[in-house]
Amino acid sequence: MGEHGHGDPKESGAVITAGDGESGRYAIDNPGLPPHRPRVADEDPKAEKRSERQVATLFLISIIGTVIFFIGYFAVELSEDLHALRLQNTLLGVGVGFAMLGIGLGVVHWAKTLMPDHELVEDRKPLRKEADRQEAEQIITDVLEESGIKRRPLIRNTLIGAAVLAPLPFILTFRDLDRSEDFGVERMRHSLWEEGVRLVRDPTGTPIRAADITIGSAMHVIPETLREVSGHADRLSEKAKSVVLVVRMNPDDIQQVTPGREDWTYDGIIACSKVCTHVGCPVALYERHTHHLLCPCHQSTFDAAQEFKVVFGPAGRPLPQLPITVDEEGYLIARSDFTEPVGPTYWERGSTDPEGDYNA
Q1: Over the stretch 138-153, which tens digit does the pLDDT of each residue have?
Q2: For the segment 210-252, what is each residue's pLDDT rounded down to a tens digit?
Q3: DSSP 216
Q4: C-alpha span between 26 and 29 (Å, rounded)
Q5: Residue 275 neighbours by CB distance under 10 Å
Q6: What is the DSSP secondary structure assignment for residue 282, as one 8-state letter?
Q7: Where does 189-347 show beta strands of DSSP type E?
C-alpha cells in the first residue's frame, strides 16, 4: 500500500506506511485472482467444434469479401454509365468491408471462445541473455500452443487464406491512383524546357529581361510554352515539373563551376528547379547574404553559389540546374532541358552522361 499522512500532532513522522503499527487495521488484503469460470467450449466438445466452425466461417467471409472486390474491380467495366459506376463502387466497398470485418471478428471470436482465458501472474526475473532467449522461445511456443493453431487446421488454413488475400485490394487501389499511360518515373525525366524557350513570370507570362534583375533578387518563373499545353490537369502537371527559381548574385560569388557548365549562367544569373529533391516541396526562401535556398518543409538547405549543393537537411542531391542564356533581345532563355530528373530522388532515376542524355 502507499503512504498516507496521519496528521497526529503527537507523532513526529509526517507519514506512516499502511500496515505498520496501529494503521494496520486500514490495510486491504490482496484479494487475489477471481476464480476461473470455464466457458461452454471448455467443457462441451460439441460447443468447441461449433466455435471452431464459426471462426472458420468468419475467415471464409473475409475471403469472399476479397473475391467480391475482385469482381467489382475486374468484371465491371468502368465507363460513363452511372449505373455501372454505382455497381462497381458498391462491390468495391462491400468487398473491402467484408474482407476486413471477417478477419477482425474471426480473430476476436477465436480468442474469446477457444484460446485459454486463464490469468497468470509472473514475477520479474533477473535478466540473463541465454535465459532470456530460452524464455522468449518458450513464450512463442506457449502462444502457438494456447492459440490452438497447430491442432485446428480448419482455422489455420482459412486464416492464412484470408490474410493473404485481404491486402490485395489495397495494392490495386494504390495502383489506381495513377492510370495514365506513361505511369512510372519516365515522366519525370523531361520537362517543357528546351533550347530557346523564354523564362516568363508566373502567372502573367511576361518575359524577363536580364538587365531588369537586380543583384540579390530571386523570382519564380515558368516556361513560355506552358500556355500552349491544353487541359487544366496536364498544364498543372507540366508546370509542377518545369517551375524554376531564378537568382542573381555577383558573378564573383559563384564558388563552383563543374566542367561543362561554364555557360549555364549569365552575368551572375543562375536558375534551378524549385522542386526540393527530398519530397518535392517548393523551395522558395532565399537568403541573399549566404546565397542559401531553404525548403520550408524539412529545412533542406541548398547553396546557389555552389551549384545548389545540399549544405543541410535530408535532401539527397542538389537542385537540378537549368542552363540559361539571353536571346538577341536580352530576354532570358533556356539552353536546354534539365540534364537530370527533377523532384525527389528515386532509385530508377539513373545518371547522366556528358551530353545530358539519361542512362537507365
Answers
A1: 887 887 777 777 778 8
A2: 999 999 999 999 999 999 998 888 899 899 999 999 999 999 9
A3: T
A4: 10
A5: 24
A6: B
A7: 199-201, 218-223, 244-248, 269-273, 285-287, 292-294, 301-303, 309-312, 321-322, 324-326, 332-334
